[in-house]
Amino acid sequence: MTAGTVFVSRLIPEPGLVLLAEGGARVVVGHEDEESPIPRARLVAGVEECDVLLSLLTESLDDELLEANPALLGVAQMAVGHDNIAVGAATRLGIPVSNTPGVLTETTADLTWALLLAVARRIPEAHRYQVEGRYKLWGPNLLLGADVGPGAIGRCKTLGIVGFGRIGRAVARRAAGFQMDILVHTRSRAPVEAEPGAEWVELDELLERSDFVTLHTPVTPETRHLIGEVELRRMKTTAVLVNTARGDIVDEAALVRALSEGWIAGAGLDVYEDEPAMAPGLAEAPGVVLLPHVGSATRGTRGRMATMAAENALAHLRGEPAPNPVNPEVYETEAYRRRRADR
């Protein structure tokens, strides 16, 4: 059994809490309101009193917070991303940081396709048309959308994938069922060349040739606003943009103009530049389907994310390398050894 306190910043799915308790940890949940962030003061107080912090993307774990507890043994993030954590500071302080990679690949790829199809076939609009009682008679011009597969004219559509990690490759595999041509732009050509049917191209060419463009790249200084006015104007006027990666990749104000002025036909978004806020005019723009960051929101995936975070947290408590380390080099530092010795 593992003794120690794990401070869970916000309520996570039950499988994670059960695993922590079964592992001998004392579990403290800092905030149970699903619709509001944990207050900063409560987060700091929780960190000061715990052995391990189990965090979410919604918290800012900056230098000040990480320095609040000289005895903190680790941070277990329940997310793939860790942009919210000052990982460099954590390493300097001797604090291991872990995450939950891989588990949400297939689920997020599914949602990418759900958005792509929903925009192309105008699913939300058609739903509202039906439930509002506006459907009186079938008509040949009613709610016409775009084909995703070859359709009646038999022309294969082109899917452009920006970023080709686990999720990008999973999206590409699904495209085979729609007989799509696949263009990819990513830093390394190697994974593209290993994927049958995928062709690496420069970003400009991808945007110009694709009927659907989907984003799966991390946010870096180079990829922030990777898709802005210039890029949106390069796309076909019939094209659809899908973003289930990070909101900062797209210049949202430019996207509103693109949709409102008809530079592109539509967009499906699960993430936003200033999340949860949206750029003015986005909600009213034509051809959009907007979701509240639910890319990994299935019971199975979120439950597994919670148990992975719990497994990492218990490893932090035991002084073992976490199964999914973000900064594995920390285990070789004198700061980490001092932190464990003080325990």
3D architecture notes:
The chain has 343 residues and is α/β, with parallel strands linked by helices. The protein folds into two domains: 5-102 and 298-342, Rossmann fold, CATH 3.40.50.720; 105-290, Rossmann fold, CATH 3.40.50. It is built from 13 helices and twelve strands. The protein has helices at residues 14-22, 40-49, 63-66, 87-93, 105-120, 123-131, 166-175, 190-193, 203-209, 229-234, 252-260, 299-318, 334-342; strands at residues 5-8, 26-29, 52-55, 74-77, 97-98, 158-162, 181-185, 198-200, 212-215, 240-243, 266-269, 288-290. The strands form two sheets. Strands 8-7-6-9-10-11-12 form a seven-stranded parallel β-sheet, sandwiched between helices. Strands 2-1-3-4-5 form a five-stranded parallel β-sheet, sandwiched between helices. Helix 7 (166-175) links the parallel strand 6 and strand 7. Helix 1 packs parallel to helix 12 (299-318) and helix 5 (105-120) crosses helix 7 (166-175). The longest helix is centred in the last third of the chain and has 20 residues, at 299-318. The protein is elongated. The protein starts with a strand and ends with a helix. The model has no long low-confidence stretch (mean pLDDT 95).
